[in-house]
């Protein structure tokens, strides 16, 4: 988040520096060019005046020496040309070499021979490589007999401009560096409470309702936000604790009356005869079902009060369960198949992964009337998938959509012992660990009439 703040501040600072420095830099470059152009105009004006006198009198030796000395001293070829463009006076070879590299020369010379002074050639930008060509007519109006032309290399001028621009850029960076130096600690001070709120939200999403944010650091607005966040979490935690306490207390308080009721009903057995016995048996079954329901509610309240998932080796979980599953399936004349690769590490839900798998295998044996139960595991990406499949009755799509709801039971299983809480509790615990419990089609039935039932648990992988 600090990086995002700097991403906003740095371009603003650069724009500020550019807004302050670029116009000045442009003006500086234009002034340098203008000064150079004015100097050349003065030179060619003087040479044009001397050339007019020299050409009219025929005494050109002094002007020739002066043009040669000017080229030797400044490195600028200055030549007097006639109306055909031929060099009359000056360093002819140096002038011709420089003229070949300047495409603007013919235009400027033509204008000078026509008696007018053209605009300066080339560009003022330091990255342009063209020379400055300046021409002055020799003579006046229709009596123009030639022109004085100078071709000035501007590399030194451009170097000075670039140096001055670099100095301005260096000075412009100072406020940028100062801004970053101030923004870095300020952003840390501002964003630290935001990071703590983000970390607290992440912990809460994993089920830890005891976490609180630091409400004594950062700007006033963020401190108020952290205080409101903590107040909200106090209310949420208190509500959840009251709910769990109510479920646990209600289950506990109802246990003794139910036990007394069961004893009272069972004590009536010797006194019953004839049509009263079926009613007695129904009453005993209902009392037992209520006791199982209370036990499930208490277990759910206890497991939901602990929301810390932990890494576990799947091999170690199965080592304590597979033998018991095989014994159960062998006793009922069924087959258990286990296909789990070694070395899988995953995040174990609260209450233990073994308890969840026990519930899924138990459902397959009790509810599906399966002949084969298969436990398999696969890893893909960041998830380990554990599937318990059978070839029994299964559930259709509409029933699977409701099977994870608390207290829901299939109409076919109303006479089978159970509370309708097992799958719902397992789904909650798996979800709290960052995983997912899905219900799918299972193994093909032996008679080919469809598929059985499958419960698939997907949990995050734990990397070494």
From TrEMBL:
Domain HAMP span(s) in chain numbering: 188-241
Descriptive protein name: histidine kinase
Gene Ontology cellular-component annotations: plasma membrane
Domain spans labelled Histidine kinase: 249-463
InterPro entries: HAMP_dom, HATPase_C_sf, HATPase_dom, His_kinase_dom, HisK_dim/P_dom, HisK_dim/P_sf, Sig_transdc_His_kin-like_C, TCS_sensor_his_kinase
Catalytic activity: ATP + protein L-histidine = ADP + protein N-phospho-L-histidine
Keywords assigned by UniProt, alphabetized: Kinase, Membrane, Phosphoprotein, Transferase, Transmembrane, Transmembrane helix, Two-component regulatory system
Organism the protein comes from: Nonomuraea rubra
EC category name: transferase
């Amino acid at each position: 988040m600090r990086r995002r703040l700097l991403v906003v501040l740095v371009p603003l600072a650069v724009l500020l520096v550019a807004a302050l420095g670029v116009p000045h830099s442009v003006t500086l470059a234009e002034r340098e060019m203008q000064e150079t152009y004015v100097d050349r105009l003065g030179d060619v004006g003087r040479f044009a005046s001397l050339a007019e006198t020299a050409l009219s009198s025929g005494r050109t030796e002094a002007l020739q020496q002066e043009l040669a000395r000017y080229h030797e001293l400044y490195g600028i070829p200055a030549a007097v040309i006639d109306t055909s463009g031929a060099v009359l006076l000056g360093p002819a070879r140096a002038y011709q070499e420089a003229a070949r590299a300047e495409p603007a020369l013919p235009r400027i010379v033509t204008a000078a021979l026509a008696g007018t002074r053209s605009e300066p050639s080339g560009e003022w930008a330091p990255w342009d490589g063209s020379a400055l060509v300046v021409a002055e007519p020799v003579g006046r109006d229709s009596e123009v007999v030639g022109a004085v032309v100078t071709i000035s290399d501007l590399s030194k001028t451009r170097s000075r401009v670039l140096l001055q621009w670099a100095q301005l850029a260096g000075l412009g960076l100072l406020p940028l560096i100062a801004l970053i130096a101030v923004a870095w600690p300020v952003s840390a001070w501002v964003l630290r409470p935001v990071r703590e709120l983000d970390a607290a939200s992440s912990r809460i999403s994993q089920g830890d309702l005891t976490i609180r944010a630091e409400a004594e650091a950062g700007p006033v607005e963020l401190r108020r936000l952290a205080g409101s966040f903590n107040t909200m979490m106090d209310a949420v935690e208190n509500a959840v604790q009251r709910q769990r306490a109510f479920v646990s207390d209600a289950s506990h308080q109802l246990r003794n009356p139910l036990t007394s009721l069961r004893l009272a009903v069972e004590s009536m057995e010797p006194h019953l005869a004839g049509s009263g016995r079926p009613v007695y048996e129904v009453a005993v079954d209902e009392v037992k079902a209520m006791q199982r329901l209370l036990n499930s509610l208490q277990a759910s309240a206890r497991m939901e009060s602990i929301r810390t998932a932990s890494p576990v080796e799947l091999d170690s979980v199965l080592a304590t369960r597979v033998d018991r599953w095989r014994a159960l399936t062998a006793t009922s004349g069924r087959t258990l198949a286990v296909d789990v690769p070694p070395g899988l590490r995953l995040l174990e839900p609260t209450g233990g992964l073994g308890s969840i798998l026990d519930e899924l295998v138990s459902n397959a044996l009790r509810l599906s009337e399966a002949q084969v139960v298969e436990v398999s595991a696969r890893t893909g990406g960041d998830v380990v998938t554990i599937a318990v499949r059978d070839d029994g009755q299964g559930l259709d799509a509409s029933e699977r959509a409701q099977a994870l709801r608390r207290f829901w039971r299939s109409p076919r299983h109303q006479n089978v012992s159970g509370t309708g809480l097992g799958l719902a509790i397992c789904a909650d615990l798996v979800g709290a660990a960052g995983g997912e419990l899905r219900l799918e089609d299972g193994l093909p039935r032996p008679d080919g009439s469809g598929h059985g039932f499958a419960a698939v648990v997907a949990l995050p992988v734990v990397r070494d």
